[in-house]
Amino acid sequence: MISPLRWAFPKSYRRLKELAQAAGIHEFEYRARVMPATDGGLTSVHIERDGSEWVRSVPAVDLEFAGKESTAFFAETVDAMAAVGHATYQEQMHHREV
Amino acid sequence: MRMSGPALRQAVSHQAIHENAWHEVDTALQAAEKVLLLGDGERFSEVAEVFLEVAEARVLVHAQEEEIGLYREWSEHLPASHGFIEELKGEHRQLRRAVLAIEDAMVDGRYPDAVASMREFASALTSHSLHEERILMEIQVEQGGFYR
């Protein structure tokens, strides 16, 4: 069952939100979902923005407390989301100029 | 000081922003009420997330823009505005509290409570929008649309 990260792991969601806000990305600009992975103890985290998706399997216990692995994944994803957003903006400006 | 755009200063265009936001909030609320009755927890979880996305993107961001733009302008140019600015900010805080209550209820799986807080949010939004539009109209009539 896929669930929003927001309800499933609120501490992790808050960590992701803090990191995203610091990068100027609002919480409604991306979607974070979790899905129990088949191998025990791992949870698959899916973060999507503008048609791009980042996925990683993280131990559920780490997600529960917004631990090191979750935070590292969120930080990398926020960097990537910011780059996607920047590229989209540049593309829009290019089309406007053209 | 950050200046607000003309759309926020003018009563009619500001009202249009409120109406668009209300339409989206109302649509999301109706969806949540319907799915709650169906008893589908997974679907309700998604609908509640959409409600909060709408509340944050359409309402709380707008409220923040008003506080750092329009209300500061009023405070600067209209000496008598202090009282109603505080009232409007209080209404914004009520909206933010309702969002937190929805979040808490969803984390605990209290879906009926989440819907109750969504209704509270929608009700607070309606009364706040009407209050603010009345003030905007009064300022526009008294000031001719411009600060002096």
UniProtKB/TrEMBL annotation, chain A:
It comes from Sulfobacillus acidophilus. This is Uncharacterized protein. It comes from the Bacteria. The lineage of its organism: Bacteria, Bacillati, Bacillota, Clostridia, Eubacteriales.
Automatic annotation (TrEMBL), chain B:
Residues 36-137 form the Hemerythrin-like domain. This is Hemerythrin-like domain-containing protein. It comes from the Bacteria. The lineage of its organism: Bacteria, Bacillati, Bacillota, Clostridia, Eubacteriales. It comes from Sulfobacillus acidophilus. InterPro entries: Hemerythrin-like.
